Amino acid sequence: MISFDLNEHKIHHIHLIGIGGISMSAIAEILLSHGYHVSGSDISDSKLLRKLKEHGAEIFIGHKEENIQNPDLVVYSAAIKCINPERVRAKQLNIPEIDRAEMLGQIMKKYDKAIAVAGSHGKTTTTSLLSLLMEYGNLDPTILVGGDLEDIGGNIKIGKSHHFITEACEYVESFLKFFPFIAVILNIDEDHLDYYRDIEHIKEAFRKFVTLVPKEGFLVACNDDPQVREIYSSAACKIVTYGIKTSADFMAKDISFNKEGHPSFTVICQGEVFGEFHLSIPGLHNVYNALASITASHLLGLDGETISRNIPRYKGIHRRFDLLGEVKGVKIIDDYAHHPVEIKATLEAAKQYPHRKIWAIFQPHTYSRTKALLKDFSRAFDVADQTIITDIYAARESDNGEVNSKKLVELMDPKLGALYMSSFEEIIDYIYDRLEPGDLVLTMGAGDVYKIGEGLLNKK
């Protein structure tokens, strides 16, 4: 493992392969802000790349060996394999290489109060909500979030304090390369089964993760999740729990929802009222995300009154129950949900939202996840009035013919009347002709399913 100190500048030129990714671009921004010469490549231009170029990065479109112009270090994203021509060239020139997670971990070491938010679901929402509570609480954190957060103008904010916050993804155990002072574990579920053998393998990775927190640090853990309860005893640090159903240090009580599905609740901390909280985002699952954020914020020194005053200012993040617009009196909402648990939570939130009929359009994400969780997916859409499943978004995988969206539809209860449609254009035309005022269209998936919502809005 290479040792990199952000402040030493023994390394001058850093090249990032896959620099347009949400996390890689954030790393590039941090390096630029500290005076490094940053270059990088990606397969196509984007808003993130144009922003990096404006800030001084040297950007190459396409992966070519000539893009390697004698950097001191090469950083590559998880999607970049060893046969990539730039990685091949770097190896020929004996240029050191590290992956994205290792680089992020090395940057985290600069900060005394680094917060890493982990879990199978809710990482981006919790990270962005906690980030804004820290920002509005005058902690001036450096923020890396896996989405477009309007309040900070994107996915990255460079702070001047010792506070740092980022998501900690468990895929390929990348979060084991981090150095958190506070670790947050929201939940543990079966996912990324193209890497993990089973839930026990996943829990073992989380057990290792909690041991990374130093003795003087904190683990914030959801006590309602039985898998989380199983693993947090491995931590050497202080454990602070939160929950709704199971006894915990921070508990949400008297939960209610307004007409838009936004929750209000009282937080009880060790038997005493900590504060009254009102969210501007819908769903019970966001009460859990908020509880994690409230707990961590308090550990960072924020009082209940400050947190309560600022928490309604969080309006959500791009692709998390994101209202895209309205057409024919119908609201079009997009959500990143791509796991059965997330789909159920998103549909429950939609049920609380004013609607006549819920249209659920789902694009499965990766063949391995669809195959491993096929039965769970088939039972995830009961709340929807009409479900349409489109083709699987392959992402990093190839189709081996073992699973497809038709099989998912065939497995679903016939009473649901679920339909399979391959073409986005076909889906747009089918829905548009049948929409009535008051309907709610909800697109879900981690791929490009949001284009269906955009297509409906463009039919105005």
What does the model show?
This protein has 460 residues and is an alpha/beta fold. The protein has 3 domains: 13-99, Rossmann fold (3-Layer(aba) Sandwich), CATH 3.40.50.720; 109-313, Mur-like, catalytic domain (UDP-N-acetylmuramoyl-L-alanine:D-glutamate ligase); 322-457, Protein-Tyrosine Phosphatase, Chain A. 30% of the residues lie in helices and 24% in strands. It has 15 helices and 21 strands. The strands form 3 sheets. The protein has a 10-stranded mixed beta sheet, sandwiched between helices. A hairpin with a 5-residue loop joins β13 and β14. It is globular, with a radius of gyration of 22 Å.
Short structural summary:
Belongs to the MurCDEF family. The protein is α/β, with parallel strands linked by helices. The chain is built from 15 helices and 21 strands.
Mean pLDDT score, rounded?
94
- What is the name of the CATH superfamily of the largest domain? Mur-like, catalytic domain
Distance between the termini: 55 Å
Strand content: 15-25%
Number of separate structural domains: 3
Number of strands: 21
Structural class computed from helices and strand pairing:
alpha/beta
CATH topology call of the largest domain? UDP-N-acetylmuramoyl-L-alanine:D-glutamate ligase
